[in-house]
Amino acid sequence: MNSFPHPPPHHDGGHQHQQPYSAPSSPVPLTPQRSTKHIWFGLGGLVIGLLLGVGTVGGIVGISSLAEADAQAAQAELMADGYETCSLDSVDGATLSADRLSVDFDGAGMYFGPDLADVYCLGDALGMPDSVSSRMGQTRALDGTQTAEWDSFSLSWNYHPDDGLGAIFEYVPDS
Predict the structure, then answer these.
(1) What's the Cα-to-Cα distance from 136 to each of 108, 114, 121, 130, rounded to whole Å?
(2) What is the mean pLDDT of each run of 10 residues along the chain (175 residues)?
(3) d(Cα 113, Cα 116) in Å, to the nearest integer?
């Protein structure tokens, strides 16, 4: 396509003298107008990709958090379930906390308190390791308060010949 203007048509009938057409001495380049559609489509695709990526990562994190929360809720429920399974609600000296996340034994092994079998029953329901059961059975008054942790539970206990075994089982959520 020629970008120079065409000379006017030549008339034979007239006596007017026309100047011959001469091209401009320096051609003026015409720059075609560029389309910006490809830029907008690219930016749109980038934004959509980022949103999908953030949404996917957020969804995975959210699902993981929900699964972790469900697992912790199930662990926490073990405390109340163990209290019920071992029939501790009818035992003097065994108390389930109001939030249902701990059980307190007072005077276990004494005539006025729960049986030691009640303490071990709850320990078994919570998956207490045998090594902790052994340590509890060997605790003396001189040893003071002892502690142990496993899974999402902790146990602190002490023993005195006059007061029996005192123990607190607690649910401790993962941080």
Answers:
(1) 12, 15, 13, 10
(2) 56 57 59 67 75 68 62 78 95 95 96 94 97 95 96 95 96 83
(3) 9
